[in-house]
Amino acid sequence: MAKERLYGWLDNQMSNIFYLNENLHEVPEYVKVNLKDELRDYQEKALRRFQFMQDDNLVANISTAGYQRKQLLFNMATGSGKTMVMASLMLYCYKELGYQNFIFLVNTDAIIKKTQENMLNSSSSKYLFNPEGIVIDGEKIEIQAVENFPAVKDKNTIYLKLSTIQKIHGELTKPRENGISLDSLEDEDVILLGDEAHHFNASTKKEKEDENSWENTINKILYLRTNNKLLEFSATINMDDKTIEQKYSDKIIYKYDLGEFMNDGYSKNVLRLQSSEDDEEKMKDALLLSQYRKLIARENDIYYFKPIIMFKSSKIKISESKQEEFNTIVENLSVEELRRYIKNRKNSVEPTSTLFKMFSYYLEQDLDSLIREIQEDFEPRNILNANEKNMLSVDNAVLLNTLENINNPIRVIFAVAKLNEGWDVLNLYDIVRISEGAGKTRTATDSEAQLIGRGARYFPYEYEGERSFTRRFDNTVNDLRFLETLHYHTINEKGYIANLEKSMNAVNLISASDESVKVYSTKVKNSFKNTQVFKQGNLYLNEKRKTTPEDYGSLDKFTIPKEWVTSFISSTVEVQQNKETKEQQIERHEKPLNVDKRYFKKALQRNPFYRFSNLKNYLPLLHSKEELLTSENYFKGVSITVSLPKEQEISGLTANEKLEIVDSFLRFCEEKIRRNYKKEIGLKRFKAIPIREVVKDYEVIVPTFESGQHVTQRIEEKPMNGKDWFIYTKAIMNRLEHNLVELMGNFIHELEQKYNEVYLIRNDEKATRFKLTEFNGPRGFMPDFILYLSDAEFVYQIYIEPKGEDREKEDAWKQQMLYEINGEDIQIIGENEEVQLMGIKFYNKMNRRVFIDELSEKIYDGQPLDGKIELLSEF
Q1: In this structure, what is the dihedral angle of CA atoms 243, 244, 250, 251, given to the nearest 10 degrees?
Q2: Which segment of 101-105, 530-534, 774-778 scores lowest on mean pLDDT?
Q3: What does the pLDDT read at residue 455?
Q4: What are the distances in angstroms from CA 55 to CA 10, 68, 146, 553, 831?
Q5: Per-residue pLDDT tens over the stretch 781-814
Q6: For 432, which of 20, 489, 704, 779 could close a Cys bridge (C-beta 3.0–4.6 Å)?
Q7: What is d(CA 390, CA 451) in angstroms, rounded to the nearest whole number?
Q8: Which among 386, 377, 217 is positioned nearest to 316, based on CA atoms?
Q9: Which residue has the higher pLDDT, 650 or 201?
Q10: What are the E-state strand segments in 95-204?
Q11: pLDDT average, residue stretch 57-73
Q12: Which H or E run contains 616?
């Protein structure tokens, strides 16, 4: 009998220096190239452990230690990609161990349907293998679905039987002609793949063998032949149960729990919003928070971002009643009522909470436009009641498993059943616990913890041209962190919260109250407040004018280009990844998409935003929907260029794929129109704003999560004592911004020799809210720093912006604006020529030399600033 659990023993064995020096059990190349996506580190680790256990050279050592290799279990967190590990194991067992027969067993029909897409449908976006085909040693390998294994095997074929445990139990206990039976399996080496394996342990839990149990049926197959193997997968194995512990102690080959998964950044962060028992209040808060996320995404040019809300009830009747209540809330929204609600709720929540930030944001918005969009997004047809049948019934499975798709309109789900195994939704962001009829016992909170764990799957949205599969904005003040956070709306009741925390701890689910944050504060230095610059000096901000209907007479007024380029890849095209950079490696070519008006008309019909009655709100000069297609001011003359893999041609796209591209273009236009409507337009005329009215003490609230953040984005607080040129007592910034301040500090002495006053002003949104507006456009821009210089003749104001290399392309318009500020057509109201405004190159590692040269040219008579800057450490 083994003295320790198998995964613990393997930890020691595989970290042994002698084992590591041998460099054994690397993931085979044929596994990597035959999977659609690259295996994550922990998935590779799982496969390597299986290789270790199947290594015949180690079998004596394994056996002596008290372990076996016939039945093994992978205890991996929900959402961690257990099916991907299964796919890699199938390839390995086929190639290295000679197996052709695989039986996939699970508890529900819904997971069978999902697995068919994963394993058998090469045209599905969910397909796990190389869509171009599986090739091993130059031979093409087929995966063939079967009900029974053929007596005569085809070469290069993997046979896969997908079945529920109930179905195969029935087949084996009551065999049918030509069906699977124990007799038909007597001559077949078989590998059983048991998904959600905790369902198979009925006999173990009873501590008594049941001849007719599912577990016994599996064991009959397993022990029918010496070489048969059972590979189980589950996120939920209760090792506190002594009988389960006894059964699985020597079988759990790998343990990767929810806590590790979350710490590694592969999930959303989870925060609890603890409120009252008032369900109407929780529903309104969730509605507004969901739309807040969508607006944040839009403001950051993240398109097709559709956050989902789930309302979880204890009974179907309650769920149906709450759905009617929700519909009424949306239908009856009014500007007066909503403003009153927001103001009242803002005063009742903690100033550090998400809700406080959200309510503050909404009070600055056009609530009439907001209500119109909410009523459009949350109309009844965009709400799914999943209570009529099992939540993952065949009727609901397709809709529920495509919630991320562009053309799936669902924003809200009402349900009683918890998120069952097999629901792979990624864009669930708000789960609301309906209080009416809800339990507060440990049993109830255990169910809620499982629900939250499944809902925390990360949504890999695209930002600034990059799609990430891990969190990017932990510990930053960037509002994009709300797109990486799941909120659980619950009640603030001491006993219930205590039970919920115990339940979360039991599954190692990392969460915190929404108010669990660090608060960094900084003050304007007294030394600066005593200066004439603070008392009488000015900063300069460009003026804006209100828009008129004529400003919206064409699409270009919304910054929509006439030439639109998009990348597209058919589900049948292979995507390889560079092993070092982990970036997609696809050779592409660009081809124009030529489609007739029917595609645009169909796409317009499918998108409720383009109803004429709604469009008139945004395009006041539009006379008809037909004009949208025929006028040069709108879609006539628009070209769509598609970037395709080199082996694919436009002619090879299906009608649905072409329509999908047009859909994407219309959604892109919708987001641009919504974002830029009724904005003010920036002018090249600047006005003076007294510094004393702009520069304030401020606080920055940073979530306390410590995992997953990029080091350059982490917010850090550094004291600025003895540096009178920096006007705040502390610098609260990310790494890139700190490097800029350090750089400025290295030649501040030279500037102080030349100028009477030298001050670097941090322009933080929490304090100054000093925002420029795009010249002849609606976009806002807050330069991170303003360098204030004055001598006997001039006052200089230099706008400075640190910008990571990965964001330069996306923010090119900001760079253009900084350069335009240097133009002769800039006017400064009420000032003579003694004031000069300047903009320079973005500051980052790659641009550092150019930045210094431009700064030297503009403010140091072209002479190079102190050479010590070259000694600064790289960042």
Answers
A1: 150
A2: 774-778
A3: 84
A4: 13, 12, 30, 71, 82
A5: 899 999 999 988 889 999 999 998 877 877 888 9
A6: 489
A7: 16
A8: 386
A9: 650
A10: 101-106, 134-136, 139-145, 157-164, 190-195
A11: 90
A12: helix 612-618
Two tokens, residue 724: 């009178």
Q: Degrees (nearest 5) of the Cα angle 552, 555, 559? A: 95
Whose CA is closest to 239, among 499, 501, 496, 4?
A: 4
SS3 of residue 19 by DSSP = helix
Token pair of 378, please? Answer: 């949350």
Token pair belonging to 514: 């929404």
Q: Do 268 and 471 contact (CB within 8 A), yes or no?
A: yes
97 CB neighbour count, 10 Å cutoff:
13
Reduced to 3 states (helix: H, G, I; strand: E, B; else coil), residue 63 is helix
| Token pair listed for 146 | 């079967």
Is the confidence at residue 575, as pLDDT, over 60? no
CB 692 within 8 A of CB 531: no
Q: Which two tokens stand for residue 72?
A: 């093994």
Q: What is the 3-state secondary structure (H, E, C) of 223-253?
A: CCCCCCEEEEEECCCCCCCHHHHHHHCCCEE
Res. 313: pLDDT tops 70: yes
Structure tokens at 420: 């069952």
Tokens 């041998």 sit on residue: 22
Q: What is the pTM of this model?
A: 0.69
List, for residues 618-636, the tens digit of each pLDDT value: 888 888 888 888 888 888 8
d(C-alpha 682, C-alpha 812), whole Å: 17
Summarize pLDDT for 501-528 with one digit per residue, the tens.
Answer: 888 877 778 777 887 677 788 999 999 9
Max CA distance (Å), the chain = 102
With a cut of 50, say whether residue 250 has pLDDT above it.
yes
Strand-pairing partners, residue 566, are 642
Strand ranges, E, within 715-784: 716-719, 730-733, 757-762, 772-773, 780-781
